[in-house]
Amino acid sequence: MVDLLFFQPIQLVPWCFFCIAYLVWRRYGFTRATGGRPLPPGPPGRPIVGKIFDFTQHDVHRLFMRYSEQYGALHDLHGLGKRIIVLNELSAINDLLENRAAIYSHRPESVSGGVLMGFSKSMILLPYGPEWRAHRKLARMALGPTQLKEYAILQEDIAASLAEALLDTPHDFFSLVRIGAGRMVIAVTYGIRNSAFQTECIMNGERFVEFARRTFTPGNYLCDILPFLKHAPSWVPFQCELQHGKEAFIEFQTKPFEYVKQEMDKGNILPSLTLRLLQCPPQGMPDFERHLMWVGGAMFGGMPVCTYATVLTFIMAMALNRDKQRIAQAEIDAVIGGDRLPRIEDRRQLPYVDAVIKETMRWQPALPLAGLSRCTAHDDFYRGFFIPNNSIIVPNVWAIAYDPRSKYNPEAFIPERFMDVNEKIVDPDQWAFGFGRRACPGQNLGENSVFILVATILSVFDILPPENEALEQEFTQHVFRSPKPFKCSISPRTFAKARLVRLRAAEGVA
Ligand code: HEM
């Protein structure tokens, strides 16, 4: 009725003609670009928003696995102008992220974390290009086999010191493990010893990671879906929050770096990846110190979450599976004896402990959607489907971990699945640390951290479920999956083990 006040019916004809011509032209352009091939299939969505808010659902990785039963290895979700393609099979992930790395190694733009919180120059978010390559080069230089040996001693010191803290206040295990993982990062990245400053850095790190977790959780900030909102005034609540995140980020990244620069000449710090690179900078890298500060921040930000998530999940699994715990303890006793604590170099002699760690990473992966998504650099075709430029690519590694074709129940905690020579189980080190050129640069260091914490805890403590109540098996959602606080009982296996821990912890320098 209102329209008729402005238009006579005859005047609508050219408009209708124009609209139809536009739709035909778009369809023609699309068909030409796709060569007539369809987009990957996917569940039907709502008008405009499509299926974009699926990402905010509880256990979204399980939802995507269910979709894959219906739509196959890759399925499409779209809405609000974004196209998201979820990959649910290792072969598809490797075909695209490894074998077509030139197309699939970008990250999607993060408005909340990157633009507004200022994290965009971190290796974790940088687009695939020269600056990202410079950061990866520094990370490689700092994480070579010789350096890992130097860091191993610090990691063993911190594992002993965590065990000592567990003797004193075992009921605080949840926060002690988080602090232990944080201390490992601070020691390895910046060489900062146990001190008030170290505690301050760990707290700053935890504060920043909490902001980062929120920005990396899809759907948390509308500005990631509607990027023009980044221009909203600074008093709008999400802008205020991200401004606080930015302050936390600057403090977390700059303070320890400046500290290393001040202290390195006094010889007051431990060997660390920042120190090593400051002492032997690479040739011909302009703006080296600025790059190094960002690399330190990326390491510091990337490392503790996966480490503590894995160790806390291990503690939960041991409390729930006493039989597996006893087998692992017996292996450690047989190989290491009672005179010392485990060392990182023992790992190869402890295949069952190794299988327990693999099973922990499979049972509850810390990053079920492989951390951060990727973004295509141009149009591509795969398995007869068209994958447009700028599509967001999400590898759902949960679908690999919970492969229903396995002989073993995927929901159960069974380390033996990794020792069965007749069953081909995909090792988590093929998917838990990411893929292709963007795969985790800290994999070996992270594996060492997890191993030494797990082996030390197993060697010294018995872990039992809480008395008279069920153990809560709740996990945080979305990007990082970590147990929510739960109760269990942790007590030294023998008096001699407790004494050993105190002696070893007293020798530590980290
Ligand atoms: C249990 C331990 C760890 C796990 C499970 C893990 C897992 C991952 C995953 C899945 C990714 C995403 C890779 C991709 O996009 O394909 C990643 C990236 C990354 N990780 Fe780790 N990580 C661990 C430990 C570490 C450690 C110890 C460091 C630091 C020394 C680290 C630093 C990074 C960085 C900087 C990136 C970004 C790489 C890039 O975008 O180029 N991570 N990690």
TrEMBL record:
Listed GO MF terms: heme binding; iron ion binding; monooxygenase activity; oxidoreductase activity, acting on paired donors, with incorporation or reduction of molecular oxygen
Entry annotated with the keyword Iron: yes
Parts of the chain that traverse the membrane: 6-25, 292-320
Cofactor dependence: heme
This protein's pathway: Secondary metabolite biosynthesis
Family to which the UniProt record says this protein belongs: Belongs to the cytochrome P450 family.
Protein name: Cytochrome P450
InterPro entries: Cyt_P450, Cyt_P450_CS, Cyt_P450_E_grp-I, Cyt_P450_sf, Cytochrome_P450_fung
CDD domains in the cross-refs: CYP64-like (cd11065)
Record's keyword terms, sorted: Heme, Iron, Membrane, Metal-binding, Monooxygenase, Oxidoreductase, Transmembrane, Transmembrane helix
Keyword match Membrane: yes
Cellular component annotations (GO), alphabetically ordered: membrane
Locations listed in the record: Membrane
Matches recorded under Pfam families: p450
Membrane topology per record: Single-pass membrane protein
